[in-house]
Design brief:
By secondary structure, this protein is of the alpha+beta class. It has one domain: 3-Layer(aba) Sandwich (Cytidine Deaminase, domain 2). Helix content is 29%, strand content 21%. The chain is built from four helices and five strands; from the N terminus they run H-E-E-H-E-H-E-E-H. The longest helix has 14 residues. It binds tetrahydrodeoxyuridine. The site of tetrahydrodeoxyuridine has 14 residues, from helix 2.
Length: 136
């Protein structure tokens, strides 16, 4: 399922970069954007949304995923994340678990302030994941 056309991936990455501009991150000042590609071909974007009660901060990846799910799109083909860093970074552990729920085979693409990028898979980032099937 996962040969995604290069042009689609570029669009996804661009959506992640653009979403970072909407980041609400007054505490970390680390503006992250993410975008997900669903099996229906739609792209949903999100940013990190922080809170004065720090533990309530929501990562960009989860904002994007929750937006897709809330619109009725529950199966992810790919997730792109943009971080304002010289090197690409990977989704945090909590986001990996949430990606697993909706896209255990998803491609994960990380982009950053430089031309460097990483393409990997959720399966490589969270091997032997606990997921919906374990609940029977
Ligand atoms: N953050 C994300 O949104 N996604 C990541 O992949 C890494 C971390 C956010 C959470 C918090 O708002 C800020 O970046 C600093 O950790």
């Amino acid at each position: 399922m996962n040969k995604i056309p290069a042009a689609t991936l570029r669009r996804l990455e661009k959506a992640a970069r653009t979403a970072a501009r909407k980041s609400y991150s007054p505490y970390s000042k680390f503006a992250v954007g993410a975008a997900v590609l669903t099996v229906s071909g739609k792209i949903y974007a999100g940013c990190n949304v922080e809170n004065a009660s720090y533990g309530l901060c929501n990562c960009a990846e989860r904002t994007a995923i929750f937006s897709a799910v809330a619109t009725g799109h529950k199966t992810l083909r790919a997730v792109a994340v943009f971080t304002p860093t010289p090197l690409p970074t990977m989704p945090c552990g909590a986001c990996r678990q949430v990606i697993n729920e909706f896209g255990p085979q998803a491609l994960v693409v990380s982009v950053c302030d430089s031309a460097q990028r990483i393409e990997t898979t959720l399966d490589a980032l969270l091997p032997a994941a606990f997921g919906p099937r374990d609940l029977g």
